[in-house]
Batch of 2 targets.
Target 1
Amino acid sequence: MQLLLNEAIYRTVIVELLPQTRKFLWIVTADIKDLHVPKGRRFVPLLEILSDLVEAGVSVRLMHAKEPGPRFREDFDKYPNLVSSDLFERILCPRIHTKAVIMDGRQAFIGSANLTGAGLGAKGAHKRNFEAGFLTSDASHLREIMDWIDQLYLGEFCLKCQRRSVCPDPIA
């Protein structure tokens, strides 16, 4: 288990580990905005990395609590395989407040950071949020968080949810 703070979250999880995913990637976040990452000599939307992963056969599951910001939605339209591929799944649930990134069931980052530039430490030192989280490869932690996220994804809490009347896209 490794504690990651501020920009170390972005550098370690998003820039180094996430693009190395080979089988499946699960991202759970409350807020989601346009986040850019290095790719070669340029910075690209994280959506381009997700699109590349899908094209390479990686299953990507993105779960979030509210509609993404306008820049994210504009960028999303630039990657049609995120819409057309069965390997990319997106779930919106207004009760999600968890922040987790699970890569191939071998590593997970669990912390306070949303999938935003300020949250993940991509912004400058005087603009970003103060965030913390843990990177783990502990099998029991991974199994427990993955089982719980699967329950969310499959809508096991959906039918009894008392926020269903305000949910824009009920899972079940």
Note: The chain has one domain: 2-166.
Target 2
Amino acid sequence: MELPETLLNVIDQLSKIPGVGDKTATRQTLVLAKWSAEDLMAFGEAMKNLAHLKSCVDCGMYSETETCEICSNKDRALGGSICVVEQVTDCLAIERSGNYHGLYHILGGVLNPLMGVGPDELKIDDFVKRVKRLEIESVILAVNPSVEGDATCSYLKQVLPDTIEVDRIGFGIPMGGSLEYLDTMTIAKALENKKKM
């Protein structure tokens, strides 16, 4: 049995979302088909408005204006600290923790020469200029632990002025984790990041 073209078009659009296959897209479309006309119009309007979403000119966070809410906050800038992350989702995770109150810089990835991602693609020169312009004293590298992440952190450390304190967030054993179930890399990182008690 062939579904109507209207449903097939929605399934096709939804299946473009990473992690959503044809089966999930079909289920979601059939749920949407049961919504009221008002709810569907509101949903469509919300999707349409995504086309007008901007990226902050300073940090790369999504914003409805040229500068995002965090970069516009003068108190955050006074802290003299920037936390560097790979993706917007990493920034949101740190914000949810409530333990960091400075500025952010979203790279949009990590250095990966094999995939054609170099310093220019990550706009690292713009980041260094921003650090100097804002007279930042401390840079926190919250980049995921991987070969590419480690290389990115090393590169950032090299290109930043020596006067700036550069730290990398700790990695290791999660709260409630058990050593016997952890991989060797996680244990190695935990040992690297040990601290005095």
Note: The longest helix spans residues 37-49.
